[in-house]
Amino acid sequence: MGKLVAFVCLVGGIAVCVASLGLLPEDYVIFEAPRQVVFGAGAVSVLAGFLLLARDHRASDTVTSILLLSLAAFAGWLTFYAPDGTIERYLPFIPTEVNDALARLLFGLGAAATFGMAIWAVRRLFR
Predict the structure, then answer these.
(1) Which residues neighbour 44 within 8 Å (Cβ) at sequence distance 6 or greater?
(2) Distance between CA atoms of 88 and 96, rounded to whole angstroms?
(3) Of 24, 30, 40, 93, whose CB is crowded by the most CB atoms within 10 A?
(4) What torsion, rounded to 10 degrees, do the Cα atoms 74, 75, 77, 83 define?
(5) What is the pTM (predicted TM-score) of this model?
(6) pLDDT tens for residues 59-105?
């Protein structure tokens, strides 16, 4: 079952990356987010598939740290560099009643926590 989920992550992530690069006809795929964000989501899915297939602990720790750093980078960009209204526009699970500052605070805390987990994974890698 684990390999099936890994292959679904790999194939789905590659398909999302191919679609974000514009290699599929425009009629098949309609984007609600910028193509770079869609490509990043596909790349994270591919990393998760490789993580599930990794048998060696060192390889697993390496892929985990890369995955966590990419998630931290996304949350950090959203916290510090995203224009006003981006969080409401591209992340519909945050209610409109929540103001932009509170949403940025929550994503900043998530970025800090994810970066800390990535540092822990890198420390485990070099033990």
Answers:
(1) 13, 67, 70, 71
(2) 7
(3) 40
(4) 120
(5) 0.69
(6) 777 888 888 888 888 888 888 887 777 766 666 676 666 677 777 88
